[in-house]
Design a protein that fits this description.
Layout lengths: L16 H29 L14 E2 L6 E6 L2 E5 L6 H10 L2 E6 L3 H6 L3 H6 L3 E4 L11 H11 L6 E6 L3 H14 L4 H8 L6 H14 L4
Parallel strand pairs: 3-6, 4-5, 4-6
Antiparallel strand pairs: 1-2, 2-3
Length: 216
């Protein structure tokens, strides 16, 4: 029997070109799969942890009419009391933005020079004056506990916290974020600095957070 000669340059054992290409693709896919699984295994084993930073709720600078050094967080606003000529308009704007309560955190002398209750009532806002004056501290402990009690109330109306210049409201809100919202204390203070917190203010915030957490 006469055998047909093999074609030059090709082995009889060599698969057709399409099969060779398919095997190459499958080998590449297998390698890729091994790489992906190896990376996943490394991540799960903790050898190369991926760090994701989460700072939680924070105060951010924003504008609310003529409120000085205005900051906002989760629907609440805070800052320094606006000029007398802008109070009524700013309270109406606050009401349109969903605010329901004015927390008056001004010192007694400033509160006596400019009343806010009537303008708040006209705008449909509840008015809540808080006595913040303390002989040897930026804010009285009674005021801290009253404000934090309100801010931690479930389902409460959103509030605007107004002080002489915004520092006291931002101090109180930083304490609230750290104590009630589990925000890291340094982050809470950083986000409140836009109102001009001084070193003494920051030290006071730290001391009050420690007190409220039972560490002082």
């Amino acid at each position: 029997m006469i055998r047909a000669p093999a074609r030059e340059g090709k082995s009889l054992a060599e698969p057709p070109a399409p099969m060779t290409a398919l095997r190459s693709i499958l080998r590449s896919a297998a390698v890729a799969t091994v790489v992906v699984l190896s990376l996943a295994s490394a991540a799960c084993s903790g050898r190369r942890p991926v760090v994701v930073e989460s700072v939680g709720p924070r105060l951010v600078s924003a504008r609310l009419g003529s409120v000085r050094c205005a900051l906002t967080c989760d629907g609440d606003w805070l800052g320094g009391v606006p000029p007398e000529s802008a109070v009524a308009e700013d309270f109406e704007l606050a009401a349109r933005r969903g605010i329901g309560v004015v927390l008056d955190l001004r010192t007694a002398d400033v509160r006596g020079a400019l009343g806010l209750e009537e303008s708040a009532s006209v705008a449909g806002l509840e008015f809540m004056p808080v006595d913040v004056d303390a002989a040897d501290a930026p804010v009285s402990e009674r005021a801290i506990e009253r404000v934090l009690g309100y801010l931690a109330t479930p389902g409460r109306p959103r509030a605007i916290l107004l002080g002489d210049d915004g520092r006291v409201p931002s101090m109180l809100y930083a304490i609230h974020l750290s104590v009630d919202a589990d925000v890291e204390l340094d982050e809470a203070i950083r986000s409140a600095r836009a109102t001009g917190l001084q070193a003494d203010d920051e030290a006071f915030v730290r001391s009050q957070v420690a007190r409220l957490r039972g560490g002082a």
